[in-house]
Amino acid sequence: MLGWFKKKFGKKQEEQKGPVQAEESVAAKAVSEVGEERPESGPQTPPEPVDVSAPPTPAGEPLPEKEAVEAESAEPGKEQEPAAEEALVKTGPSATRPDTGEQEKPVRKSMFQRLQERLSKTRETLASRLDTLFLGKKQIDEELLDELEEILITADLGVRTTQELLDAARTRVKRDQLSDPQALKEVLREKIYEYLQASDQPAELVMPESGPFVIMVVGVNGVGKTTSIGKIAAKFVRSGQSVLLVAGDTFRAAAIDQLKIWGDRVGVDVVARDPGSDPSSVVYEGLEYGVANDIDVIIIDTAGRLHTSVNLMEELKKIRRVIGKKMAGAPHEVMLVLDATTGQNSISQARMFSEAVGVTGLTLTKLDGTAKGGIVANICRELGIPVRFIGIGEQIDDLRDFDAREFVDALFNREPDETRQS
Ligand SMILES: Nc1nc2c(ncn2[C@@H]2O[C@H](COP(=O)(O)OP(=O)(O)OP(=O)(O)O)[C@@H](O)[C@H]2O)c(=O)[nH]1
């Protein structure tokens, strides 16, 4: 994910300027020029005065239930990964340690081990079940391939992908006259790696030459959008970028609060307005604020919506149009967040969001909580949209740049080969 650093690597994070008051009338006017009436999609209370702010959560203020859990688990003493090590791992072979300024090699092995640990449920399904299947087997026969089919399908690789994998395996077995089941496992691993690399879009986030890098985050309810936004913001901040969060989810007060809490935790500004405000207007104001304050990365939260809800999808299209009209070329990334535990349904979510707003990258969350990590390969194969990040927990550091090789190795419980070219 080195694309992040292409434009501004090394740039020191500037102290973010204080909040400004955006002109509601300007935003509302511009938004109404862009498109049709706002669909009946949520509370329609009249907009309150603009609240463009990053209010720190007042000490002692009770957090909403979900946030309280997050905040509690982020307390000192709980397992946290050191920020310096994280920055080092993320910035690749020539990374500079923020503390010493020295060039050091990334800690690839420990990174792999942590990923492997978190993906243990997935690994139990694929790696352990494959090991058990192949144990004591001397040859590859149809009975073994049938059992293999069942394992792949239960790992959420999907029927078509499983079929293709088995066909590839059969072809290789025939062509190379493979008889060793271990060799078959290697064929599967390489084929899944191929799927994981499949993509129509650039594999890395590429920031524009000038102006803010705008990320619009979309997805159905509860997949982990806001949490992922917080984690992604933290990554950008660690790499020296200034970040702004925009609360485009105006339907639920708790969603706005949750984003503000993340903004506070990460130390970045949040543009938000009262619940019931027009999300497109809030987004417009957010972009104005970002440009006026020379922000590097603007991350826009949107309300969770069922991909089957026509009105809400129309509203999302409108938000996208507003962004494009306000800032040519933006959004530079339309990131769809998918909950890996939902399995095959995530494929249809991805299709419908892609049709509506042109998804350019994926974040797959909750991979720590599923035994079905095969969904990642299935999504990549079916959709050709690159996976940018994977979420492997609720903590601020529980987000990984997606690395196809590392992921497939963790999935197959295989130590990474340091000499292999990815
Ligand atoms: N285990 C695990 N939990 C996660 C992960 N990402 C998010 N969550 C949890 O999933 C729940 C929903 O996350 P949110 O960020 O509120 O989801 P959302 O998509 O913004 O939800 P809406 O605003 O309702 O659309 C929270 O309890 C998060 O802590 C992850 O990678 N692993």
Automatic annotation (TrEMBL):
Biased composition (Pro residues): 44-61
MF terms (GO), sorted A to Z: GTP binding; GTPase activity; signal recognition particle binding
Topology within the bilayer: Peripheral membrane protein
InterPro entries listed in its UniProt record: AAA+_ATPase (IPR003593), P-loop_NTPase (IPR027417), Signal_recog_particl_SRP54_hlx (IPR013822), SR_rcpt_FtsY (IPR004390), SRP/SRP_N (IPR036225), SRP54_GTPase_dom (IPR000897), SRP54_N_sf (IPR042101)
Keyword Membrane belongs to the record: yes
Keywords (A to Z) from UniProt: Cell membrane, Cytoplasm, GTP-binding, Hydrolase, Membrane, Nucleotide-binding, Receptor
Compositional bias per record (Low complexity), positions renumbered to this chain: 18-33
Complex and partners: Part of the signal recognition particle protein translocation system, which is composed of SRP and FtsY.
Name of the protein this chain belongs to: Signal recognition particle receptor FtsY
Phylogenetic placement of the source organism: Bacteria, Pseudomonadati, Thermodesulfobacteriota, Desulfobulbia, Desulfobulbales
Name of the gene: ftsY
